[in-house]
Specification:
There is one protein chain. The two termini are 17 Å apart. The chain is built from 6 helices and 11 strands. The strands form 3 sheets. A 7-stranded mixed beta sheet has the order 5-4-1-6-10-7-11, sandwiched between helices. A two-stranded antiparallel ribbon has the order 2-3. The radius of gyration is 19 Å and the shape is globular. By secondary structure, it is of the alpha/beta class. The protein has a single domain, classed as Spore Coat Polysaccharide Biosynthesis Protein SpsA, Chain A, CATH 3.90.550.10. Helix 2 links the parallel strand 4 (50-55) and strand 5 (70-73).
Length: 242
């Protein structure tokens, strides 16, 4: 494929520091480094042209290259605890366009900590994005009978329902949570808005079990359970088949 044809670029930010689970981006999960699953899923997508990992960590870079992703070296000022994902994405886009002459039409932003993607999820999300003429997309999960409370200055308050008049679960308005698995955004939105969400937002709905992500060692067992139960751990595009 000629570089001028490249448009859909998967970017996976994966910095080295982690306050929750040390080295979580390359921690073993279902027999592979956690980062490898997102790389493999992006590479298996028919709508993604190239896959890159943005990182400040040489071990992460080595894993990325081993599984067939390009590496964008992220500067230290964009790798701290308070650095936003948007800053890493925008830096990656600028590096790809300026230093590698790769035109980026769509950023496919995948979080390494959310590997529970079914085959075809990424392609279907891109299809939804294009069909709706969106400039950004988030993957979501429908809340099903989850009653959320918030601690406020005057005490506890129900957030997504009225505890004084609960009503029937089926009568409550449908609500969704941003599950962090798939984001699509144009480079223009990143540059103008400084945000992954623009003015024409689309959503891609996923199943509730796909909401889980890894932030602690306990969640690895949960992710592995679903990966094996849903047959997600049998994907073949690993370092042996780059």
């Amino acid at each position: 494929m000629e570089e001028k044809e490249i448009r859909n670029i998967a970017i996976i930010p994966a910095r080295g520091g982690s306050k929750g689970l040390r080295g979580k981006n390359i921690h073993p999960v279902a027999g592979r480094p956690l980062l490898a699953w997102s790389i493999m899923q992006a590479r298996e997508s028919e709508r993604v042209d190239r896959v890159f990992v943005s990182t400040d960590d040489p071990e992460i870079a080595a894993v990325a290259e081993r599984y067939g992703a390009g590496v964008i070296r992220r500067p230290a000022e964009l790798s701290g605890d308070r650095a936003s994902s948007e800053s890493a994405l925008l830096h990656a886009v600028e590096v790809l366009e300026r230093e590698h002459a790769i035109p980026v039409g769509l950023v496919v932003f995948l979080q390494a900590t959310s590997p529970l993607r079914k085959p075809g999820d990424i392609d279907r999300a891109i299809g939804r994005f294009e069909a709706e003429g969106a400039d950004s997309l988030i993957s979501v999960t429908r809340l099903d009978d989850l009653t959320v409370w918030e601690r406020q200055a005057h005490g506890w308050q129900s957030v997504n329902f009225d505890f004084r008049n609960r009503g029937m679960r089926q009568e409550r308005p449908q609500q969704y949570i941003e599950n962090g698995s798939i984001y699509l955004v144009t480079p223009e939105v990143l540059r103008v808005c400084g945000n992954r969400i623009g003015n024409r937002l689309s959503v891609y709905e996923m199943e509730f079990w796909q909401t889980w992500e890894i932030d602690s060692i306990e969640e690895i067992d949960l992710i592995e359970f679903y990966m094996f139960k849903k047959n997600l751990a049998g994907q073949e595009s690993g370092p042996e088949n780059p």
